[in-house]
Every structure is written in structure tokens, then in C-alpha cells.
Write a structure and sequence with these properties.
By secondary structure, the protein is an all-alpha fold. Helices cover 75% and strands 0% of the residues.
Length: 512
């Protein structure tokens, strides 16, 4: 116990120290929200990865989907690496950095407002961001609490308070730059931790081959009557597995806290390096988490009584004290890095996109930074209260971490992915098409939350429903754009002029 406490105190001390050190970079909006658009490839890539993978992944998704699909759940991690990291950086990275700087937009709602010359779009997007980031944040606390209860026997409320206060301190003090540096430190911990945990868990089962053999002997007639289903290539339910891959991989393309990482990149070369680093990070962390979760059925877990979120903590409970301490720091790192990204995205959106120019007509740069800091506190407090209610609720539909995340990711990515992607690449994208995507993505997920039983069986899962809204948006936006009035040519040409700007290029990039 002394070892665990010492490691936690050191970890928290470093996080707060970084926040205080970065105060000088958080004096204006550009510095506080985007780190002055001068963040290098390693910090940006690790900030992207650590914001991507949290306790939601390690405790919630890895446990639930490892139990459902066995070793085939590793495909989710592979999809996260190839689609959610590599393709996201390759397709969105450069264009996002160029156009957002050209339009002088610091948030995703501000991008929509300036790209489509629509104040309404900016306000609508900011409302969606603020509402649907809250359940995602609440799910972070839940996953962490399971681990703290196992390792320390600490009551849930103290876990929430500690994580909230400490994250709030370094984010409020140092803004995005403090978050990026801490994300890098936390990312190193995650890489080391996941490798060590996988090795320890498999050694308990006699090694990888013995564990795989044991998994081949597991049967569950409620899931499938196929022998060896849980160590097969695609698992017992490939269709629903595909839905999870789409939601957790393609979804990052439309999440404000993820896309915002591209706003802060400094140089062209940083995008290429960041792509490689981010993809490698995702393969190890996400692939490792789902790979580990795939062996959950080899352990004595009463899922009916304790839920899917108890699977990973049960697997880890018999590890040596040193490794348990490492796991606690690992999941704490993942959760705090994601929480910091979420609160910066939500508070900056509320201040810059909703209050500035609408409710408060004149707002100085200094006042904006003060309000962003205030809303960081408010956002953390609201999500913490929801997390407490969520664990006390008798309604089983809100019990699982994965469901909370599914609703949040589905609504945000379903609303924003298509209009953001087409807005970067296609001049004919219209304001009406954006509104249709906003309403469809957020609306379908709200209906799924309250009237789930009326949906087709395959869409009753918020995971599959979220994947459906994203794919549907990719069809809705071009179809509506083609049948709706064309946008003003002057406005579109002004937005896309940034891509035509002539810049010096190395000869390896261009012969001319």
C-alpha cells in the first residue's frame, strides 16, 4: 500500500508541476486553447493517442468486447490504429491545420461558423458539443473507480474528487501546453504499463499458447454454439464486431477534442512524424487493451452480477503489488489525459462559440481565458455529479461504460464527421447539409437513448446506432448539398484560397 501511495503522489506531483511550469503559455486564447499552434509531432501524437484511449477503453470496452468476441476483439484495436489514427492524420491532419489557421478558428463549432458563414451553425454545434461530451466524461470516472476500489478500497466519491481536482489544477494553470506535455508523460506510462500487464496476465495462464488453448475450450451457448468461437479469427459475432470497429475508429474523425489536436501542429514535417508515432502508439495501447480483454473468459467473473466493467479489474486483482500500482497509474494517466482534452474542448466551445458575440457582445482576450477556466471547473463538476448518479442508478441501461461512450461518440461523430470532412475537401458542401447532419446524428442517438426498444434489433445497441449515424452522414451531406441552394462562390473561394497559397517545397517533394 505504501508503494502504491508513493507512486500516486509522485505522479500527481509531476502533473501539477507541469501545469504550473506552463502558465506562461496560457495567457491568451490562442496559447491556452491551442498552445500557440506550435506543438511538435511527439507531443501532438501522444496528446492524440492519450485523448483517444482512456479508462473507457481499458476497463469498459476491453472488458465488454473481449468477453463478447474473444481474441477477435483485437481487430477493434487494429481498426483504431489504421482508421482512427493513421487515416485520420493522413486525410484530416494537413487540411485541418491549414484551413483552421486561415479561418482563425480555435474550435470545431467556430470552424463551421466561419467555413459556412453561419452564426447559427456555430451555436448549434457548440450546444451539441457541450451536451454530449458530458456523458463521455462521466464514463471516465466510472472506469477509474473500479480500479481504485480494487487496489485501495477507496470509496468511489474520493476517487472522483481526486481525479477532478488534480486534472482541473494543471489544465486551469497551463492550458493546452500543460495538457500536451502531461499527455506525453502519461503516454509513456501507458506504453510501458500495457506491455507489462499483458505479459503478467498471460504468464499466469501458462503463456500465450496455453491461454489461447484455454480460450478454445470456452463455450457459451447463450452467445454461440460454434466450438472454439472465442479464439477464432472473427469471433462469434462478426457483424456487431464491425459496428464497434466503425464507431471507435471512424468516430475520432468527428470528435472535437480529437480533431482539435490538428489545429496546434507546428510544421509540415510534424504531420508526417505525428502520423507514424500516433499509429504506433495506437497499435500498442489499443491493440494491447483489446488483446488483453479477449482472455477475460479465462477468469472467474460473474458478469451477470457485477457487469462487464468488473472483468478487467478481476483479471488484474491477482497481479503483484508493483504491477497493480503500475496499472493504477496507467489507467489514471489514460483517464486524466482524456478528461483534460474534453474539458478544454467543451469550455472553449462554450466561451468562444456560445457566449462571445451572442450573450456577451464584447469580450476581451483576457476575459475569454478567465471564462474558459471557470467553465473547466463547471464542466468537471457536472460530469462528476453525473458519474456518481450513474453508479447509484437502478436503471441497468446506464450501468455500462461502453453504453455511455456509445451515446456520446455516436451523437458527436454522427453530427460532425461528414460536414467537417466534406467542408475541408468539397466546395459544394452547403449549410443546409450541415444542419441535416447535425439534427440526424444527435437526434437519432437521443431517440435511441430513450426509445431504444422501437429501433430495429441491430440498432438497439448504442454502439451500432452510433456507427450507423456516422455512415449515414457521409451519404446525407452530399445528397442534401446537391439538391439545396449552392453556397456563395465568394465565400467558398475565400475559404479554399488557403490551399492555393504558394510555399517553398523541398526538391524531394517537387521537381519544380
Amino acid at each position: 500500500m505504501v508503494l502504491k501511495i508513493v507512486m500516486l503522489v509522485l505522479f500527481f506531483g509531476v502533473m501539477v508541476g507541469v501545469g504550473i511550469y506552463c502558465r506562461k503559455n496560457a495567457t491568451d486564447v490562442n496559447g491556452f486553447v491551442l498552445g500557440g499552434r506550435s506543438v511538435g509531432p511527439w507531443l501532438t501524437a501522444f496528446a492524440y493517442g492519450t485523448s483517444y484511449f482512456s479508462a473507457v477503453i481499458f476497463i469498459g470496452y476491453a472488458g465488454q468486447f473481449g468477453w463478447k468476441y474473444g481474441i477477435a476483439s483485437t481487430w477493434i484495436g487494429i481498426g483504431n490504429a489504421l482508421i482512427g489514427s493513421f487515416l485520420a492524420w493522413a486525410i484530416l491532419g494537413r487540411r485541418t491545420r491549414i484551413m483552421t489557421q486561415h479561418l482563425n478558428s480555435a474550435t470545431m463549432p467556430e470552424f463551421f461558423g466561419k467555413r459556412f458563414d453561419s452564426k447559427g451553425l456555430k451555436i448549434g454545434a457548440s450546444v451539441i458539443v457541450f451536451i454530449f461530451l458530458i456523458p463521455y466524461t462521466a464514463s471516465l470516472y466510472n472506469g477509474l473507480s473500479r480500479l481504485f476500489e480494487m487496489a485501495f478500497g477507496i470509496p468511489y466519491i474520493w476517487c472522483i474528487l481526486a481525479m477532478s481536482v488534480l486534472t482541473g489544477i494543471y489544465v486551469i494553470a497551463g492550458g493546452y501546453m500543460a495538457t500536451a506535455i502531461n499527455d506525453f508523460i502519461q503516454g509513456i506510462i501507458m506504453l510501458i504499463g500495457i506491455v507489462a500487464v499483458i505479459a503478467a496476465v498471460l504468464s499466469q495462464q501458462g503463456g500465450f499458447m496455453e491461454a489461447l488453448k484455454g480460450l478454445s475450450e470456452v463455450t457459451d451457448e447463450a452467445v454461440t454454439d460454434m466450438p472454439g468461437a472465442f479464439n477464432s479469427f472473427f469471433g462469434p459475432d462478426p457483424l456487431n464486431l464491425l459496428g464497434v470497429v466503425i464507431l471507435t475508429s471512424l468516430g475520432t474523425w468527428g470528435l472535437p477534442q480529437m480533431v482539435q489536436k490538428f489545429y496546434a501542429i507546428k510544421h509540415e514535417k510534424d504531420i508526417r512524424k505525428g502520423t507514424v508515432i500516433s499509429t504506433a502508439f495506437a497499435i500498442i495501447v489499443a491493440g494491447g487493451c483489446y488483446f488483453l480483454g479477449g482472455f477475460g473468459r479465462l477468469f472467474d467473473v460473474d458478469v451477470a452480477a457485477n457487469g462487464y466493467d468488473a472483468i478487467i479489474p478481476t483479471m488484474l486483482s491477482s497481479l503483484p503489488d508493483l504491477l497493480i500500482a503500475v496499472v493504477v497509474i496507467l489507467v489514471l494517466s489514460a483517464s486524466m489525459s482524456t478528461l483534460s482534452s474534453l474539458v478544454i474542448a467543451s469550455s472553449s466551445t462554450l466561451t468562444i462559440d456560445l457566449l462571445k458575440g451572442n450573450i456577451i457582445k464584447k469580450m476581451s482576450d483576457k476575459k475569454q481565458v478567465v471564462l474558459i477556466r471557470v467553465f473547466i471547473v463547471v464542466f468537471i463538476a457536472i460530469s462528476a455529479l453525473i458519474a456518481i448518479y450513474q453508479t447509484q442508478s437502478q436503471n441497468e441501461s446506464v450501468k455500462f461504460i461502453a453504453q455511455l461512450m456509445g451515446v456520446s461518440w455516436g451523437a458527436l461523430a454522427g453530427a460532425f464527421l461528414a460536414p467537417f470532412l466534406y467542408g475541408l475537401y468539397w466546395k459544394k458542401t452547403t449549410k443546409l447539409a450541415c444542419w441535416c447532419s447535425f439534427i440526424f446524428g444527435a437526434g437519432v442517438m437521443v431517440l435511441n437513448l430513450f426509445f431504444r426498444s422501437f429501433f430495429p434489433v441491430i440498432l438497439q445497441s448504442p454502439i451500432n446506432c452510433g456507427a450507423f449515424t456516422m455512415l449515414a452522414g457521409l451519404i446525407i451531406v452530399p445528397v442534401v448539398s446537391l439538391i439545396s441552394p449552392k453556397p456563395k462562390k465568394e465565400m467558398v473561394d475565400a475559404a479554399f484560397a488557403c490551399y492555393e497559397k504558394r510555399v517553398p517545397a523541398a526538391q524531394k517533394r517537387s521537381l519544380d
